[in-house]
Design goal:
Largest sheet: none
Number of helices: 1
Oligomer: single chain
Order of helices and strands: H
Number of strands: 0
Shape: rod-shaped
Distance between the termini: 67 Å
Length: 49
């Protein structure tokens, strides 16, 4: 199975794009979850105080 060089280049570009996009989405989701967890913990501590 031999691809046209141009097609493989496009595939490689798409692969890199999806990989970086997934990394950005994972980072944003992680930050959002972390901020939510911190907010919940802070509200629990304030309620306890």
């Amino acid at each position: 199975m031999s691809f046209d060089p141009q097609i493989s280049e496009v595939l490689r570009y798409a692969n890199n794009f999806f990989a970086s996009g997934y990394t950005i989405v994972a980072l944003v989701a992680g930050i959002a979850i972390g901020a939510f967890a911190i907010r919940v913990l802070l509200s629990l501590f304030q309620r306890r105080a």
